[in-house]
Design a protein that fits this description.
heterodimer; A: about 475 residues; alpha/beta; ten-stranded mixed beta sheet; three-stranded mixed beta sheet; 14 helices; 13 strands; B: about 350 residues; mainly alpha; 21 helices; about 0% strand
Chain lengths: ~475, ~350
């Protein structure tokens, strides 16, 4: 009876995996094709003056939460000061660092303490102890020193409370915001008055040389772990996000770089300090809020507004990062489970959330199921080796081509360059990515469930290195 | 053939199909990149094409290109070539060319796709219409362009209309867009108006004000922004009354307040103070905030001081903050400061103390 049950299970799995993989391949193909087509249209529109050429700006507050960021914080601020944008302020939030992050910033920029400054705690956060300010090149730099909130979300909320401008840019303390990033993002807000959030393109800054916040040399081939993330980010940000943007069903405006209308953040209560994936949690919450209240809104994505981030350089750091992301995914999907397959939430509820459940949340489990099926059929001697190998190779080829397509979409990016050598390295990386990297990520995700309690609400930063960046004083 | 075999074949066929699609996408990059490169840098052939056509037509009496030549406008590269050719001509020749070839050009300009239409409108915004009496066909075309929903087409079309510098035309465009419920960024509108319009701005503002009530808030705000920029205060009294109109958008009211705040007469100061005292804080807090900030530029009067001291005790953070800044700007006597210090409202004290500590920076 047991054997019969297993046979029936295997048979069911065959049908299941057929539909599972078909839908996946269909979605990836469509989103990739749409992504490439849109990139082409963006460039063509630029050339044909289908742009809003204007010196206009929306004042923005750039919030930089920092916990033990003494290595990179000064460089980050110096790069921000070089932004080509008319009006913005920089708000550094020192979240109770145990190193000398706060003092380094005070000394370097000659900040003065604001005595008796009233603080409006519009969003809940841990108490703010001190505020320091100074102006450099007509840009206000504010340093907040606060009680440790144990997470980036709490620090960002404190920054929002102290900010003075109507748009909030959140980013990490080790990132380089490209010089023209805010200008490009502001155009999206100018085009559509209903825009409440804008997501940008996140790229790996490892082994990239910068000058005045612009990349002058991008390198592949120095670190395989980084290169695989370059390929992966290309797939995600170009392949998928553009398509999701068209249907207003972006589920993540990245915590690494995102712009939000401050009034909306105040309405929805800011970032959730209990969430491990606070960026996705906030984005889904915004979708829920506007759909529930039937207010018009859109959240946009632009691949030309770029922020460079330091990615994990070792498998150990990568594992920690992905564990946290996966736990954040579980938390968010569980919290907003009522939105899944709920027509009230439009394409987000009916398509995107179920897709994420099936292809990101449950993917590691299906991988285990797939291995079980293969191992059983080997022992059962019912496996068709040529067929299995053939399908596997076809999917491998499919995955490689997808990655390569997304990478080559760089040809459409503004100020991005590509060479034959880089394409070859990208191809090699895409092969390793398909063979090894994705399976590694799935395994890491699977085992992270057991670590969820330990990982909850804790600042986790990979090993920092100084970025190769020159800034003209 | 068993079900499983069928399934297996289907999987393989599907995968092969996906591979073909992805390969096509990859291949298409080659063509699209080449095409984009051609559009950006390789348009000399297209410019020469139009120069040749113009030279041939100049040899006939009417200097008119053949209708079939205009069919080329359907191609983006030819369109760019035309723009580059025309921009090289002196203004008189530009106007002459546009007038004489209106029929052929406009016929195909109506048939283009939206992206090319936006470029055509952009081209018109850069060219010179010397003879303003013969621009009707282009005006009609541009007004028809406003029916489309593309924000880029709308932007370029409005620029072209502003460039033609006819108040009636601009008025008509704003009314049309308002009727169709099509908003446009007020900042873009006001800046484009100020940059592109070459006629009498005061006359334009009078014409636009005559239809003010029929416009969407964004067009109203744009008009007020232009008034603000050009120090046009002819309608201040009417705007003061409008502040009490319940149906008027708060964004328009804020723009009005900024306009009134620029002319620091006792009348305007009293009007703003009156607005702060009478407006409902729940629904009008943004307007009260802006008004409280604007009062800082006025000469000190008892009325203004009293209003700001009262605003300092508002339940709204931003009203308190702006009132505190304005009080510091206009200057406070020792008694007035003491009055706040001895009061029971801690928030008011905090706001004022902080504003006083930042006096030099404010």
């Amino acid at each position: 009876m047991m054997i019969t049950f297993v046979h029936k299970l295997i048979s069911f799995c065959n049908y299941f995996f057929f539909f599972y993989l078909t839908i996946y391949a269909l979605y990836i193909s469509i989103s990739s094709a749409v992504g490439s087509w849109r990139m082409y249209q963006y460039r063509k529109k630029d050339i044909l003056h289908n742009v809003l050429e204007h010196d206009f700006y929306y004042p923005m507050s750039i919030i930089v939460p920092a916990y033990n960021e003494s290595i990179s914080i000064i460089q980050t601020i110096q790069n921000l000061l070089k932004l080509d944008y008319k009006k913005f302020e920089i708000v550094i939030v020192d979240d109770g660092s145990t190193d000398d992050t706060k003092q380094i910033v005070i000394d370097h920029f000659h900040l003065q303490k604001d005595e008796g400054r009233p603080i409006r705690y519009a969003i809940k956060c841990q108490p703010i102890h001190e505020i320091y300010t100074a102006e450099k090149d007509d840009i206000l730099i504010t340093l907040i020193s606060k009680e440790n909130g144990r997470c980036k979300a709490d620090a960002t909320n404190a920054g929002i409370n102290v900010s003075q401008y109507p748009y909030i840019v959140n980013m990490d303390a080790d990132e380089i915001l490209q010089k023209d990033a805010l200008k490009i993002a502001a155009h999206l807000i100018l085009e559509d008055e209903n825009v409440v959030g804008v997501g940008g393109n996140i790229k790996m800054s490892n082994h990239v040389k910068f000058k005045n916040s612009m990349p002058v040399e991008t390198e592949l081939g120095k670190n395989l772990v980084v290169d695989m993330q370059v390929i992966e980010y290309g797939r995600a940000f170009v392949g998928s996000r553009i398509f999701q943007n068209d249907c207003n069903m972006n589920l993540i405006i990245s915590g690494g770089y995102g712009i939000f209308k401050k009034s909306v953040l105040l309405e929805v209560g800011g970032f959730d300090p209990k969430s491990m994936g606070e960026d996705m949690e906030l984005t889904v919450r915004i979708h829920q809020y506007f759909k529930k209240n039937k207010k018009p809104y859109s959240m946009k994505y632009t691949p030309d507004s770029v922020c460079w981030t330091q990615g994990p350089q070792t498998l150990k750091d990568l594992r920690k990062q992905r564990q946290r992301w996966y736990c954040g995914l579980i938390q968010t999907l569980f919290k907003y489970r009522k939105m899944i397959l709920n027509p009230r939430y439009g394409s987000v509820g009916m398509f995107m959330l179920p897709y994420v459940v099936m292809y990101e949340l449950l993917n590691p489990f299906f991988m285990v199921l797939g291995w079980f099926v293969i191992i059983w059929t080997i022992f059962d001697k019912s496996i068709n080796y040529p067929f299995v190998l053939f399908v596997y190779l076809l999917y491998l080829l499919f995955g490689i081509l997808m990655s390569l397509t997304s990478y080559i979409d760089k040809l459409y990016m503004k100020k991005d360059e590509i060479s034959f050598k880089k394409i070859m390295i990208a191809l090699l990386t895409a092969i390793i990515d398909s063979l090894f990297f994705r399976m590694f990520i799935s395994c890491v995700s699977l085992f992270s469930i057991f670590k969820m309690k330990k990982l909850r609400s804790k600042w986790e930063s990979p090993t920092r290195v100084a970025v190769n960046s020159e800034v003209d004083e | 053939m068993g079900t499983l075999h069928l399934l297996a074949i289907l999987i393989i066929l599907l995968l092969i199909m996906y591979l073909v699609v992805i390969s096509f996408v990859l291949d298409s990059h080659v063509f699209t990149i080449r095409y984009l490169h051609k559009l950006t840098s390789n348009t000399q052939d297209d410019v020469s094409f139009w120069i040749k056509k113009k030279d041939i037509s100049d040899q006939n009496d009417h200097s008119v290109l053949k209708t079939r030549d205009w069919k080329n406008l359907e191609k983006a590269e030819r369109l760019i070539g035309l723009q580059k050719m025309l921009i090289q001509l002196p203004p008189i020749e530009q106007g002459d060319f546009l007038t004489k070839n209106a029929e052929g050009m406009i016929h195909y300009a109506r048939k283009m796709n939206v992206t090319n239409k936006a470029y055509f409108a952009y081209m018109l915004s850069e060219l010179s219409f010397q003879d303003h009496d013969h621009t009707q066909a282009y005006e009609d075309l541009l007004m028809d362009y406003l029916d489309r929903s593309s924000v880029y087409l709308r932007e370029n079309t409005l620029k072209a209309l502003f460039h033609m510098s006819k108040p009636d035309l601009i008025k008509e465009a704003f009314i049309k867009l308002s009727r169709q419920n099509k908003s446009h960024s007020e900042k873009l509108l006001s800046d484009d108006l100020m940059n592109a319009y070459q006629g009498d701005t005061k006359q334009l503002l009078k014409e636009l004000y005559s239809v003010f009530d029929h416009l969407l808030p964004c067009y109203k705000i744009a008009i007020i922004l232009v008034m603000n920029h050009t120090n046009f205060h002819q309608y201040d009294q009417q705007f003061i009354s409008a502040l009490y109109d319940q149906d008027l958008s708060i964004d328009v009211k804020c723009a009005i307040i900024r306009l009134l705040g620029k002319k620091t007469t006792p009348e305007n100061g009293a009007s703003l103070a009156n607005y702060i005292n009478q407006a409902d804080e729940e629904t009008q807090w943004e307007g009260i905030t802006v008004a409280a900030g604007a009062l800082g530029a006025f000469p000190k009067t008892d009325d203004i001081t009293k209003t700001l001291l009262k605003a300092l005790t508002s339940s709204q953070w931003y009203i308190r903050r702006n009132a505190a800044h304005s009080l510091v700007f206009i200057g406070m006597s020792a008694d007035e400061i003491k009055q706040v210090e001895n009061g029971k409202d801690q928030y008011a004290k905090d706001a004022l103390n902080f504003a006083l500590s930042r006096k030099d920076e404010i």
